[in-house]
Amino acid sequence: MTTPVHGSPDDLSTAALLERLTTQVSTLVQQEVAHATAEVKQKGARMGVGLGISGAGLALVAGGGATLVATAVLALALVLAAWLAALVVAVVLLVVGGVLALVGVKQAQHSVPVPQDTIASVQRDVATLKESAHR
Q1: If you placed Cys at 36, which of 14, 96, 117, 118 could pair as Cys (CB 3.0 to 4.6 Å)?
Q2: Contacts of 122 (CB under 8 A, 6+ apart)
Q3: How far apart are alpha carbons 97 and 7 in whole angstroms?
Q4: What residue ranges are annotated as transmembrane (predicted)?
């Protein structure tokens, strides 16, 4: 049977203090893991909703964009040969699309859902434990 771990630390044996420490550290780790999981889920859900809405918007924009591309080719075909008009519009679209893709990749790299609140909390816990150990 274990020694009771309730009461003032001055009244407890070393074994009881170690048992209390083990229990408290275990509880703290479990709480921090639960907090990190909840934080990542919340950020992931928000990101999923945003991506879904963006996808629907992009589908509509693609339809409008295709119509504008056809219009640009037809308008340019009034002054150039039809094949040359289509080639000029295609090259412009490929260059602009490539630049936008690179910008998008850089933006996506900065939006990884990191549980920043939990990391800060764990860092505070470690600092508190270190400070308590030096007393």
Answers
A1: 118
A2: 32
A3: 68
A4: 51-74, 80-103
Residues above pLDDT 70, as percent of the chain: 93
- Residue 134, classed as helix, strand or coil, is coil
Angle between helices 14-76 and 82-109 (to 10 degrees): 170
Burial class for 72, CB neighbours closer than 10 Å (0-12, 13-18, 19+) = middle
pLDDT digits (tens, 9 = 90+) for 87-133: 999 999 999 999 999 998 888 877 767 778 888 888 888 888 788 77
pLDDT band at 7 (very low <50, low <70, confident <90, very high): low
Burial class (CB in 10 A: 0-12, 13-18, 19+), 76: middle
Tell me the pTM: 0.43
Q: What is the DSSP string of 64-79?
A: HHHHHHHHHHHHHTTT
